[in-house]
Amino acid sequence: MTAPTLVVEELRTWFHTRAGVVKAVDGVSFSVDRGRVMGLVGESGSGKSVTGFSIMGLVDPPGRIVSGRILFGGRDIAAMPEDELRHLRGRRIAMIFQDPMMTLNPVLRIDTQMIEAIRAHEDVSRDEARRRARDALGQVGIPSPDERLAAYPHQFSGGMRQRVAIAIALLNRAELIVADEPTTALDVTIQGQILFEMQRLARQTGTALLWITHDLSVVASLADEVCVMYAGRIVERGTVDDVLDRPAHPYTAGLIGSVPSRNLRGQPLQQIPGVMPSMLSLPAGCAFRTRCARADEACASEPAERGFGAGRVARCVHPLVEPVP
Amino acid sequence: MTVFVIRRLMQSGLVLFVMSLIVFFGVYAIGDPIEIFISPEADQIERERAKAALGLDRPVWAQYFAFLGAAFQGDLGRSFVFNMPAITLILQRMPATLELAVSALLLGIVVGLPLGMYAGYRPNSAGAKAILAGSILGFSLPTFWVGLMLIMVFAVNLGWLPSTGRGQTATYLGITSSLFTVDGLRHLAMPALNLALFKISLIIRLARAGMRENMLMDYVRFARAKGLPMRRVVFVHVFKNILIPIVTVIGLELGSTIAFAVVTESIFAWPGMGKLIIDSIQRLDRPVIVAYLCIIVFMFIVINLVVDILYSVLDPRVRLSEAKG
Q1: Is 2.60.40.1930 the CATH number for B93-324?
Q2: B239-259 and B182-215 helices cross at what angle (nearest 10)?
Q3: Which of A79, A200, B56, B145 has the CA that lies 20 to 30 A from A304?
């Protein structure tokens, strides 16, 4: 058993705003193994994107990693100076963003944007870099990559642009790819193709994937393991099969119940009542208790992480399945 | 592109024609130049003879067609005062104004662009706030007052720089300009700075706003996620994007600087076109006024055309739509 590619330990990324301290990520721990896909699921504002940016070292002020460790290749990213971080970014850890219409620079050609990504890290000739860029475009299924290299982003459709962004992430054969809702803005057929490509990539090259999404069906088809985040914390973590089939945390169960399904045609969808509380005024104890049907006085104190067997943990006083001590 | 240029040239011809019509009849309505030229003691016969000699005895529409006919042959009339072709007179004065305007604009770019970019890159730093305060002063202080203050400080009190005239000129590569002699540069320094002050402020504002806006864009974050050094992100990715609005404004500013350097030229007794037009208006030297305005309009047309072409070079999205149109 080799060491995991990425280990996040008790990560806390806080935003010090005028209105108060927003604990966007508050004590998050998980790890991703080589060639595995970790799904990070949660509602908007649950802190999943901030977790991704923390791993990239791209948290902008007023945000700051206040404590915790992000271990990658034996080094702690959270304590790394900017200069070293830069050499890590794009080379060993790559990131794919949510909106493909916004991530490519509109005034630079695709080849410029790809070649610079290679040459920022490696001393290779332009021709060699160009050849690698072309191969990467071919790899993500862009037809006639040679001609497309000379095109500008606006000459691509949304799906094609996201493929270009993925190709850029693949350029330096990163060991870890952080994907922040990369398929949310795409239509389902394109989404399916990209998910398939990414899964194949992880298997073949041993790249670890951290897939951030709010879409449980994406997680179900792609990920090996899943972390469910709520209000800056991981409320449940385990293998995809365990978590989705027999959720322990009421919030996970609520998320699963909110997904429309063919089998439940005609029945009203279950929904989680209320909205996520403001990150500035979280309730004491379990942050979910104001929306939880099972909540009682015991939930007002911080629930500890409890094991449910086979690497599975959840933070709940009244879990839906019996804890395994 | 060719179609675009041809279409623009045809539009420009129409603009020139309409403008000549308005200016000719407008100047006719101002007053009768004979009253100014002829001494009050002159009798009726002398008066009629002078009128006939200048062609002012004919009806206004006949004068206009005579002007138009001559204009097609490159003759915009003879100055009443100097008794030489108006166009020669203006072209003699043009280099002085051009060198003043171009120097001022270059000063605006060289000083304004870096300051504005810095102010936008570190918006909360003390330096950025000082730059912003300075640009407000540059906007709001009247040009004539700043010009007088410059003269008082640098010419009168310190005695470093001459206060009037253009100084020694030299010819280099067929261009006669005071830029090529030390004496000429000493004469140019104050008027150029005076004229540049507004432009510096304007470019600071534009660069700062563009910088702040673009630094928040996803493409900047993506470029950083690729591991690019910050200087490449700022000087290639962001710079090319903020250049688009700045080039437009600089182009228009160049036109208005050449056309309306009047105040600065008057204060520093700079022998340029601005001073010529003021003198001509006072003496009702009709052909010079008309010829001057025709040349200025022509210049604006050329500058706008160049800006449009530059714009399409900078922004690939514009390039594509022009090719269709």
Answers
A1: no
A2: 140
A3: A79
- Residue A266 or A218, more confident: A218
Residue A226 has pLDDT above 80, yes or no: yes
In whole angstroms, what is the distance from residue B205 CA to residue B116 CA?
6
pLDDT reported for residue B303: 84
A95–B contact, CB cutoff 8 A: yes
**Interchain contact A174–B (C-beta under 8 A):** no
Collapse the DSSP code of B71 into the 3-class scheme (helix H, G, I; strand E, B; otherwise coil) and give the result.
helix
Residue linked to tokens 């992100």:
B233
Relative to beta strand B175-177, strand A305-307 is unpaired
Task: For residue B112, name the pLDDT band (cuts at 50, 70, 90).
Answer: very high
Tell me how far apart the alpha carbons of residues B265 and B287 are, in angstroms, rounded to a whole number: 21
User: Cβ neighbours of residue A225 under 8 Å, at least 6 residues apart?
Assistant: A32, A36, A37, A38, A39, A237, A238, A239, A240, A311
Label residue B284 left, alpha or beta by phi (over 0 means left) and psi (-120 to 50 means alpha).
left
Rounded to the nearest angstrom, the minimum Cα separation between B120 and chain A is 15
- Whole-angstrom distance, CA of residue A125 vs CA of residue A159: 30
CA A42 to chain centre: 10
Interchain contact, A86 vs B223, CB within 8 Å: no
Are the CB atoms for B209 and B120 separated by under 8 Å? yes
CA distance A116 to chain B (A): 8
Q: Residue B319 above 70 pLDDT?
A: no
Nearest CA among A108, A49, A122 for reference residue B235: A108
Give the C-alpha separation, A68 to A64, whole Å: 11
Backbone angles phi, psi at B298, to 5 degrees: -60, -40
**Tokens of residue A69, six digits:** 């460790």
Domain boundaries, chain B: 2-72, 93-324
Mean pLDDT, residues A255-265: 74
pLDDT in the model for residue B325: 34
Q: Does pLDDT of B169 surpass 80?
A: no
Residue in chain B nearest A120 by alpha carbon: B228
Instruction: For residues B150-162, give the mean pLDDT.
Output: 84
Q: What is the pLDDT of residue B238?
A: 92
Distance between CA atoms of A15 and A312, rounded to whole angstroms? 30
What domains sit in chain A, N to C, each tagged with a CATH number?
Answer: 6-92+172-262+269-315 (3.40.50.300)
CB proximity under 8 Å: A 244-273 to B: none
The whole-angstrom separation of Cα B289 and Cα A245 is 87
Considering only CB atoms, which chain B residues are within 8 Å of A88? 227
B268's tokens = 């520093």
Q: What is d(CA B25, CA A71) in angstroms, rounded to the nearest whole number?
A: 80
d(CA A51, CA A57): 10
